[in-house]
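Exercise: predict the fold of this chain.
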Amino acid sequence: MRILANDGLDKKAIGVLLDEKHEIETDHYDLQELKGIIGDYDVLIVRSATKVRKELIDAAKGTRLKLVVRAGVGVDNIDVDYAKANGIDVRNTPNSSSNSVAELVLGHMFGLARHIINANLTLRDGEWNKKHYTGIELQGKTLGIVGFGRIGRALAQKASALGMDVVFYDKFVSKDERFEYLPFTELLARADFLTLHVQATDKPLIGAEEIDLMKDTAIIINTSRGGVVDEKALLMGLNENRLGAAAIDVFTTEPNPDPELCNHPRVSVTPHIGAATAEAQERIGQEIVDIVLEIGEKLRARAS
């Protein structure tokens, strides 16, 4: 098969696919370029940068393209239903980045709890602000997890090991042997740290009303999808001291997020790097290899 990894792919995965006699290209093409060449490939592999919407799918109708693979968990950059309606399968790699995202959440939590980022930057500027950076411990604090899938559960286990009180809310899960379920509004009121692990939403899950229910010392962490948190309401909550701090890895406008939000002294930001570890990328690559080989076998079986 001919494969286009338009947003790149792990080197080991590329090697395996080449060993299996598939052709693979890793050059990046913009939408207009993709429309002209998409029909030359059997498989398109994307991350979050490439959008597979109606315009691109229409260009692929009736061509050899049979599969789009999202190298990651969310598929909100792909019009899944429209692709499938036109004979193009869509798959993702849901098992690979859970640990990496969970660890990034903890990194942000530690950074904000102990003022690590600001202390680092001011010390580099020659300021010895030891008395300015009295922080808090994570032990004994309540972590509220919204979305109790693979990432939420991985984070719950790690946070529990640190001595945190973990509670969760999920639209589809209301019981767990280890961790306490709470209704959404109760979780908001109780959480010292609130972390979001949900799919893209039509409207913000956390807005002004939800922030008003939270402690004025609470810290919000969003590593799920931009738009899940109302960024204007978040800024207002911080500026009016109705929130303690926030950490954001995903933004409404990427790659050009709101500079006021990014430069706020009580906000920790990263550029959508939840899955950006060597280990996660290797696991994602292996999942993609398994998917491509599976589809290849199916196509060969049909041909015979």
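Check your answer against the key: The first helix runs from residue 11 to 19.
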